[in-house]
Structures are given as structure tokens and as C-alpha cells.
Structure to design on (632 residues):
């Protein structure tokens, strides 16, 4: 059966049965609204003979809803059925790399020696866990070409913060504290300028609107004499899904001016195993283990954002860093790493994610990781090639691991990117990233990843083509009401933003 | 929009008032691109801004966009009404201006576009 045929059958079935696939979807109230004082969750004996030294009563009402265990179970299980995740369906969120989380990683992370290890137990009893962290450091250093690695940061933006603080510290150490400008292209992830501002830098934007890429000329203009430039933050491939082809020349100019090159690792999935960012001039980079290295992403997390730096910058890394002395693995802290910025996170960071990432890397091997990048790029180009006649592709192709389309062909009909996204929800597909990057109007940024089958990508293409065809045929009214088959229908986002209600009870 | 206005590539409009005060807002093109406005972050009166510096933020459901000053100077007045009704930006120049900036370097005005040049610039936009 072709994908086209499947869609037609599904949509016909929905029309025949009012409510469509909502038959077993339960409306679910808040636990507070269920509260019934005669149904406490747990029956505890009255405390007797206990007198608190503070004089307070031994038991007080702390204001939790009184519901039974089955009610609690059903509450959360029902809510979970409203959720959408990568385990549920296609999730082509651009620049987010929502890929399958292999179950092997989950199995390994649940080994008792990993799952039950305690951060305060003596290092001599946690050698296996420390070895996992050490080996992950080594491999990330190899893959990025940046040998100084700290696994501590808790997520991508946290890694960015650690990275820019590393740069700041390096300038301070060299008597270059006056450098106060950070260069950021206008296609950057929003976290880049936010991080630079958090670290006290002034932003200077490198325009990329014309071609979707940084040009040497635009970079030179932003750099100026470079005397006050601390560094540059660039995602490569960028958020238009394009490789920054002038990056070698640009990084050379930046280094000559005394600045450091921060590489945002969000899009590393396109390069892993193929190119080392260090060889492209990157001095500092964060890695999203929850993107490129397949640890859970989104609600399932937690994220993990190790940073990788050049040998020169390694002394400034946060602590702890795992070191190997002889055959022994150990955590090195401030007392040994005198130039460190200190700690950014309790204990060692997200150890459970370190285990999963190492499991992912070792189970793929060097050849497997290379194929990850190749297949990710192939998938995105397949989508681009199939849809570029139906949707405007502002920078043509080929692309890297994600492709950028816009609503330019549709918007005169009144159907815009937001309507297209909501129609995908209607068809059981999570929307792509919308209205980002900001360098094009009505952006739709699509990242299928290498873990999607051709079937699921074809289904997405079929739905997207059907939307474009309906718009072309003038059948546009329905788009403003979608989604109708979801637990909640079209939300009034404008009122929600203008008059936010932050409590369920007024 | 009135012909006497000056425009920037970042889609701000500027109207001169009393010779050395620039009244600044965002153009219809920017308003359309942003969609429904939900919030405007205004600068403090007295704040010094350089040409090209961001001095306000306009937030819509889609995105938050910086508003850049076409001139160097000092914030002389802000349109407080926008705090409670951001959509006023779309009404008219009189109701939708964002801030008034006292110009310190009149030469800043020279590089700005007139209506014809801005329309030409727009016709080349995606």
C-alpha cells in the first residue's frame, strides 16, 4: 500500500467516525479537582508518643490532594497518552535532533553497578563508573578534535555557558579582559546571544540573510579591527541547514585578531565521524548528548552538555574532570586544577546520560557514527528534493542534516506556516521547527534524522504534499481550525500570551 | 505611511520632531511579519543608545524582535500605552510610536532611506 493510499484511508476513517481516534482518549482533570478527603492515598497510624523539639504538632496538613493510588496511576498514565514523543511518531524538529533512543543504551544504564552508584561513595568502589566517564571524555575529544573535555554541564545551554566562561577566563588570564564583544550570526540559536549576554559580552550580529551563510566580507565588517572581540559563536552546519563553507578563512581571521571560536554543537549530528570541529578552527564546543548521541531528549531527559576545548584552554574547564593515574580513575577538583572556573553542577553531571552516550558510541563504532552523519544528511536532502516544488526553499540545496522551507508559495491564500504545522498535528505528526531561523519569513525547519525509515519520511512527504495541493486548489478554510483530532484543539495563543493565567484557580 | 518618514533596513520608521528628536516605530512590513503582538518592552527614559543598538523588544506569538535605534542619542520619551495595548503599534504613527530619541549626532540621519528607497528595498525582500 502506498503512503498516499494510507493517508486517504486514515482520513476517510476519521470522517466516518466522529471524534476519530479519540475513542479511548480520556479527559483528565487536575489531581486537585479529584480530591476527596475520604479517599486518602495512604493510611498511616496516628503518631503517638512523639514530641517534636520545635513544639510543632507531629503531623500537619501539608496540602497535598487526598487521592488513592489507582487514581494517581491513572492520572499520570492518562496524561502520558496526551503526550507526543519520539517513541510515538515522527518528530522532525529542526536543529533539535529528535532521534530514536536505542534500547540497548537503556539496558546498559540500568545495570545495577551504574544505576545504583552513589556520587559520595569512595572512588575506589566506583572505578567502573569513572572509567565510563573517562572513556567518554576521550572519545568526545577525538570526535571533536578538542582534547580537553568536561562532562559536568547539565544541558546544551549550560554547556554554552561553561564554554563562554572558559573563553572569558582565558582572556582574563592573558590580560585581555577588555575584550567585550561576541560575534554571532543572525541565524544563531537563541541561546547563543543569551549566553554571551549572561557572560557580560556585547553582541555584534553577522548578517547571513542573503545566502544563508556567513560570508568573509560580512565577517570582516563585524570583526572590524578585532581589538575588542572576545570570540564568535557559530553553529555549523547552521540553522538554515547549510555548511558554513567559508569557515576556515573566517576562523583564521578571528584567531589572528585574538578571538576564540565557540562552536555550538547542536547540529553535530551532520558531522559526527566525518569532520572534526577542531580542524575547522573551533576552540570550544558543547556537545548535546541528548541530540547527537541519542540520550533521551525533551521531557524524558535530562539533557547533558559536555564541553570540549583545545589543549590550551583545558586548564580553565569546570571541575570535576576525570583523570587516569596509572590504572586508577579519579575526579580532579579545584585543589589540583588551579585555573579552573570551578563547579557548575553538583557532583559529576548527568552520569546516567554519560553511560547511554558511551553505549551509543561503542555500539555504533567509528564506521557507524560516520554512517549516522551520512544518513542524516541523506534523509534531509530526500525531503528537500521531494518538497521543493511544493514549498519555497529559500536557499535551494543541497542541505546538510536539516532542510529549510517557507510558506511563501502558500501565504497569499491565507494559509501560513502555523496552519501547516497544526495540520501536521492533525495527521499525527509532530510539527517541524517553525518561524526559526529568523533570517527567512515563515520558516519551516525540518530535521528527519537518520533513525527514521523511508516509510515514515514518505508519509510525512505525502501529508506535506497534500497540504500544498489543497491550498493550491483553494480548499483553505479547514486549515484554520486544525487540529481537531487532538486532545486539545487550536489554542488561542495570542490571548494566552497577552493574559497568561499561571494558576489553575483564580 | 507619510512620505516624510525615514526608514531602516531593520524596518524601523523615524519621524523628526522639532529638529533634533527622532520618533521611532516599526513599519507595516515588520508588523505583518511579526503577526499578533503580545508584549512590548520599552527602554527607560534617559537611557543612552548608539546607532544600531537595540532599545526595545517587540514580542509576538511567533518571535521576539529587537527594535534598533537608527540614531545615537538619549531616550527622551516612551509610549507607555504600548505596555497595556501592544497592538496600538499597528494603529497609526501617532498612537504606535515606540520611543522618542534626542539625537546627538545628526549625521546618523544621512544613511537612512526615504519612502521610495524603502519600497524598493522591500520589493527585493523574500
Amino acid at each position: 500500500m502506498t503512503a498516499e493510499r494510507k493517508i486517504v484511508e486514515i482520513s476517510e476513517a476519521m470522517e466516518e467516525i466522529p471524534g476519530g481516534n479519540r475513542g479511548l482518549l480520556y479527559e483528565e482533570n487536575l489531581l486537585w479537582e479529584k480530591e476527596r478527603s475520604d479517599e486518602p492515598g495512604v493510611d498511616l497510624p496516628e503518631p503517638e508518643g512523639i514530641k517534636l523539639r520545635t513544639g510543632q504538632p507531629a503531623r500537619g496538613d501539608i496540602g497535598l490532594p487526598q487521592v488513592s493510588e489507582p487514581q494517581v496511576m491513572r492520572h499520570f498514565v492518562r496524561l502520558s497518552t496526551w503526550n507526543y514523543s519520539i517513541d510515538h511518531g515522527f518528530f522532525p524538529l529542526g536543529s533539535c535532533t529528535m532521534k530514536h533512543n536505542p534500547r540497548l543504551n537503556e539496558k546498559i544504564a540500568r545495570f545495577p553497578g551504574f544505576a545504583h552508584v552513589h556520587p559520595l561513595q569512595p572512588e575506589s568502589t566506583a572505578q567502573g563508573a569513572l572509567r565510563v566517564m573517562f572513556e567518554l571524555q576521550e572519545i568526545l575529544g577525538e570526535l571533536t578534535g578538542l582534547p580537553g573535555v568536561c562532562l559536568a554541564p547539565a544541558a546544551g545551554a549550560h554547556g554554552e555557558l561553561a564554554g563562554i566562561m572558559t573563553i572569558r577566563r582565558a582572556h582574563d588570564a592573558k590580560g585581555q579582559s577588555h575584550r567585550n564583544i561576541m560575534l554571532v550570526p543572525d541565524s544563531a540559536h537563541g541561546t547563543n546571544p543569551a549566553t554571551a549576554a549572561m557572560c557580560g559580552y556585547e553582541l555584534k550580529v553577522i548578517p547571513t540573510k542573503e545566502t544563508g551563510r556567513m560570508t568573509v566580507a560580512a565577517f570582516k565588517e563585524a570583526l572590524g579591527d578585532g581589538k575588542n572581540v572576545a570570540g564568535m559563536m557559530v553553529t555549523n552546519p547552521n540553522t538554515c541547514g547549510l555548511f558554513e563553507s567559508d569557515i576556515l578563512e573566517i576562523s583564521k581571521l578571528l584567531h589572528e585578531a585574538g578571538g576564540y571560536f565557540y562552536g555550538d554543537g547542536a547540529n553535530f549530528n551532520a558531522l559526527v565521524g566525518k569532520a572534526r570541529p577542531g580542524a575547522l578552527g573551533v576552540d570550544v564546543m558543547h556537545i548535546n548528548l541528548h541530540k547527537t548521541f541519542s540520550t533521551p531528549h525533551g521531557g524524558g531527559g535530562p539533557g547533558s552538555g559536555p564541553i570540549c576545548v583545545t589543549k590550551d584552554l583545558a586548564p580553565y574547564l569546570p571541575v570535576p574532570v576525570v583523570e587516569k593515574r596509572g590504572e586508577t580513575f579519579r575526579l580532579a577538583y579545584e585543589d589540583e586544577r588551579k585555573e579552573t572556573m570551578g563547579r557548575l553542577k553538583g557532583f559529576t553531571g548527568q552520569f546516567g546520560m554519560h553511560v547511554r552516550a558511551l553505549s551509543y558510541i561503542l555500539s555504533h563504532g567509528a564506521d557507524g557514527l560516520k554512517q549516522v552523519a551520512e544518513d542524516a544528511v541523506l534523509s534531509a536532502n530526500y525531503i528537500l528534493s521531494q518538497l521543493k516544488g511544493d514549498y519555497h526553499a529559500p536557499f535551494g540545496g543541497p542541505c546538510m542534516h536539516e532542510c529549510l522551507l517557507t510558506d511563501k508559495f502558500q501565504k497569499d491564500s491565507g494559509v501560513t506556516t502555523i496552519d501547516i504545522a497544526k495540520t501536521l498535528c492533525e495527521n499525527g505528526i509532530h510539527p517541524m521547527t517553525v518561524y526559526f531561523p529568523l533570517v527567512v519569513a515563515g520558516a519551516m525547519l525540518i530535521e528527519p534524522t537518520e533513525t527514521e525509515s523511508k516509510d515514515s519520511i514518505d508519509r510525512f512527504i505525502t501529508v506535506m504534499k497534500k497540504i500544498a495541493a489543497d491550498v493550491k486548489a483553494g480548499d483553505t478554510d479547514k486549515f484554520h481550525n486544525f487540529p481537531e483530532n487532538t486532545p486539545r484543539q487550536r489554542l488561542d495563543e495570542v490571548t494566552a500570551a497577552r493574559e497568561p493565567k499561571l494558576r489553575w484557580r483564580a | 505611511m507619510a512620505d516624510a518618514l525615514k526608514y531602516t533596513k531593520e524596518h524601523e520608521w523615524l519621524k523628526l520632531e522639532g529638529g533634533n528628536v527622532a520618533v521611532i516605530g516599526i513599519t507595516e512590513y515588520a508588523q505583518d511579519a511579526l503577526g499578533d503582538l503580545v508584549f512590548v518592552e520599552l527602554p527607560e527614559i534617559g537611557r543612552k543608545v548608539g546607532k544600531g543598538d537595540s532599545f526595545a523588544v517587540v514580542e509576538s506569538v511567533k518571535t521576539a524582535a529587537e527594535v534598533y535605534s537608527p540614531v545615537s542619542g538619549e531616550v527622551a520619551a516612551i509610549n507607555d500605552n504600548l505596555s497595556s495595548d501592544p497592538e496600538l503599534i499597528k494603529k497609526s504613527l501617532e498612537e504606535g510610536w515606540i520611543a522618542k530619541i534626542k539625537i546627538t549626532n545628526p549625521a546618523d540621519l544621512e544613511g537612512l532611506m526615504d519612502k521610495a528607497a524603502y519600497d524598493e528595498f522591500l520589493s527585493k525582500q523574500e
Q: What stands out?
A: Chain A has 14 helices and twelve strands.
